[in-house]
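Entry:
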Amino acid sequence: MVKKLSLRQLSEPEIFEPYRYIPADTARADFICQVYSHTLHETYPIHWLEYYEIAIILAGKCIHAVNGKQYPIEQGTLFLLTPADFHTLIIPTGSQITIMGAMFDEGAFDDQLRQWIFSDPHDFNIKLLNHELEIVKNAFQVMVNENQKHNLGSFRLTKNALEQVLIYFARVNKKQIEQSQDRKYSQSIPSNSMHNALMYIHHHFRQPLNLKLVASQANLSSNYFSERFHEITGLTFQQHVQNLRLRFAAGLLAASNLPVVDVMMASGFNDPSHFGRTFKKQYQLTPRQFRLKNQTDKL
């Protein structure tokens, strides 16, 4: 049975579902990937994934709102999202965009590729030069074609093409980071093993996490990992995870009209009383008060 990827949406209206194609051999493969190609004529509502997504804008302009912040994007923009992000594509009335993308799980990353992309804070959207755009566009086309045909070796060609796109994202992002000289995050991480664990937490905080599972990402015992984690972050493991969940919840509350209980569950909490108490302690407002204040401030 082929595993389906999960798309979480905050909208009531009927909207297109681009994630159509999945190779038949993916269920037996070491990673899951679904590819799409579509022209959008209207705003795609706020949603979030349980997986990663990378996409290229082939034509048109729109606003890409990620975690409550808005970024103008256009032809040649490549964007990468993790399970920690929620986003929407805001398309002006009478306009349209053409987009190709892939949604995939962690099996697409080996340790080296993961380090290339996530060792520094990455921009959600990067602008490709013309020759880079052609290479990335062709790689996406390979993924779309192979997902539709399901020929011998389609899985391998799909994975190779996705890796090519991710490498180009890493290259351009590295160049932008070097130009901005903003390398504080990578300098604060003392080892690749601890960096892998911190990255795992950041990408999976909305899921059930425990210290043993995260420590295994660093190949350390739970006790030693807990000590090192506190030295690096100044927080306990549970405090750090809770802060990430609260920040995600605050962003969703400000950016959407999703019911508070749905925001709570999307953020990784499962107890309304605990969520309400911890949220008020962090922001000095209840979730409803926080939403009202932030949405009023935008008027």
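The CA atoms of residues 63 and 183 lie 27 Å apart.
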